[in-house]
Amino acid sequence: MSLPLPVLPPLLIAEAVRRALAEDLGRAGDVTSAATIPADATAVAVIAAREPGTIAGLALAEAAFCEMDAATAFAAAVADGDRIDRGAAVARISGNARAILAAERVALNFLSHLSGIATLTRRYADAIRHTKARVTCTRKTIPGLRALEKYAVRCGGGSNHRFGLDDAILIKDNHIAVAGSAGEAIRRAKGFAGHLMRIEVEVDTLNQLREALQAGADAILLDNMQPGELKEAVAITGGRAVLEASGGITLETIAAVAETGVDFISSGALTHSARALDLGLDIDVSA
């Protein structure tokens, strides 16, 4: 059963959209539209898919148009998380022509980028649907867009890893190098963390896994292990900790990783390598 989508806070949407519009409009606004279109001209535009995919980011697209002119009408034809075919209408926008064209690129940038993440995530999630494993994202996000990109991952059927350095303890190889051992790092973390904060540790050998289990880690990240090692890690763990596989995960390898019995599979590619979904806006001259 798929989980309900999170709700993007309106303040987060407004801040992201206003920052993007300010970047695009610069000091003089849309000089092309001002030079060629009467101030009172109206228009109807349609956003349509030029390829199949999964939609995410409709609220940001709507906010971009309405920020330019509050009287703009934005009617979505689909919902975030929906799969769409090539040629499908995504939204219909009507209002002041200058306002629509001024917001067009910002709206499409957000919608195409987030839908690209959702589309790629959906492919990963579909590839492991026959297993208990869930695909999850990482902190490899575009600065300033993390919450939006993690929302898009959820739209594609994935789950979210930690949002930042402050919401969970993840002990990685460099922490272990400084602390002296995985066990010592976990011991220190347990003395520091509150009772609601979970502790995950990254290991790259089965001996480190055993050490982490003995020290009482809540979750263990199995870094760059092959399927054979992962199966052994699952057997050794015996349900005592949540297991996350990570490192070099691709669409071609994720099914074999999931079939080992791990709980989560993390991939930075979901956010840092997703290609934007090809969406376009055209004025409806028949309207």
Describe the protein.
Strand 8, helix 8 and strand 9 form a beta-alpha-beta unit. The chain has two domains: 10-119 and 274-283, Quinolinate phosphoribosyl transferase, N-terminal domain (Aldehyde Oxidoreductase, domain 3, Alpha-Beta Complex); 126-272, TIM Barrel (Alpha-Beta Barrel). The protein is elongated, with a radius of gyration of 23 Å. The chain contains eleven helices and twelve strands. The mean pLDDT is 96. It has helices spanning 10-25, 31-36, 58-68, 97-127, 146-155, 173-179, 182-192, 206-215, 227-237, 254-258, 269-272; strands spanning 42-49, 53-54, 73-76, 83-84, 89-96, 134-136, 169-171, 199-203, 219-223, 242-246, 264-266, 279-283. It is of the alpha/beta class and 287 residues long.
Element pattern in H and E: HHEEHEEEHEHEHHEHEHEHEHE
Spatially, the strands of the biggest sheet line up as 6-11-10-9-8-7
In terms of DSSP E residues, the strand content is 15-25%
Number of self-contained structural domains: 2
Rg over CA atoms, rounded to whole Å, is 23 Å
- Can you say what the CATH homologous superfamily of the largest domain is? Aldolase class I
Helical/strand content category: alpha/beta
Tally the helices: what do you get? 11
CATH topology (level 3) name of the largest domain: TIM Barrel
Largest sheet: 6 strands, parallel
CATH architecture of the largest domain: Alpha-Beta Barrel
Low-pLDDT stretches are none
For the terminal residues, how far apart are their CA atoms? 41 Å
Number of strands: 12
